[in-house]
Input
Amino acid sequence: AKQIWNWIYARGAKSFDEMTNVSKDIRKSLNDNFSLSRPEISQDITAADGTRKWLVKFSDCKEVEVVYIPEETRATLCISSQVGCTLACKFCHTGTQTWVRNLEFHEIVAQVLIAKDLISDWDQGNRRLTNIVYMGMGEPLFNYDNVAKSVEILKDMDGLDLSSRKITISTSGLVPEILRCAEELKTGLAISLHASNDKLRTDIMAINKKYPLKELLAACKFYNEKNPNQKITFEYVMLKGVNDQELHARELVNLINRSGVNAKVNLIPFNPWDGC
Output
């Protein structure tokens, strides 16, 4: 099992026939019962700065986006956890699509395998892909079990061998699952904050009605306590005339200071889409 695992996740094998240190009888049995085929690539788009976006199609023809962001000293892959989304945050294009289904853990991991194929990243001594972010389509913590299992595979030392510090889960703020993550997954945590007070956040993110800022920040504080070496990232998309004024900036700083959360803020330019 360890040999097969290593071939799949450390060497990127796409067929059992490649597994030369596994007996022919076992390889035949594996071929008869299992498949290592990858999902299809429906679209492959490269931007001027080298960022690549892939539309990945699974066996049931449902599709998700995967984004590869290369930088000088690292490269990040943004992966999806659901087909569509239920949250309908006002600034998010995925939120305009209906939720179809959760991704299975192997479909989440397959996005990483595909990316490594396409950027030729199977040389263990010279990795290009360094960071994974669950920040594609969907709310990862609504698919907790599959996300957790995929994280376990990504971190396995005999396979993809990514450290917890190189994996980040981005959430709109599901408090009970954040508390579970703190104890069970111990990855990086990013919060889609996008507002400096409850009224504004509820207006653009309905999830805030269920988990308002006080509860969310208390969960973040707990996450800090359980993972003292991890800074939480607050994602803040800049919406012109909505949340981008100086008073919002001061309110945001005060909010974080009062909470005692060890955090950094990532200011994100809004990426407009048709009908937004």
Remarks:
- The CA atoms of residues 119 and 128 lie 8 Å apart.
- The chain has a mean pLDDT of 95.
- The first strand starts at residue 40 and ends at 46.
- The two ends are 49 Å apart (CA to CA).
